[in-house]
Amino acid sequence: MERTAVNPVTWSLEMGFNQGEVISGETRTLYISGQFSHDMQGEFIGAGDIERQTQQTLDNLDRVLAGFGAERSNLAYVEIYLTDVLAHFEPCVALFKRYVGDHRPAGSLIGVTGLASPEQLVEISAIAHLN
What we know:
Distance between the termini: 6 Å
Number of strands: 6
Structural class: alpha+beta
Helix content: 25-40%
Oligomer: single chain
Radius of gyration: 14 Å
Largest sheet: 4 strands, mixed
Strand order of the largest sheet: 3-6-4-5
């Protein structure tokens, strides 16, 4: 699998994203449903705490990736939904940047008026490529 990233603006790298990415070679595509802050029994974690919710959501994303033999570096596109972008942008992006490390998938961060449950502050969906 070969990756080519495009970054005409440098600020996107600071946010943890590439502007675009081409994956070539023989790959399969994994579409990951929106993950949110729940434990393995389905109990909601971190009501009112964006950092705890974001971390749990990223942990859940890791579990899905691992279930398909993938890693964070396989992420090609990540979509983050926040119910309060002004209040939660910085802590969420800081955790996301730590999560992806040097890898920079393409992505979007979208403000929404609500998510599936009233206490949910963040949801993350993704597309990954598998070798």
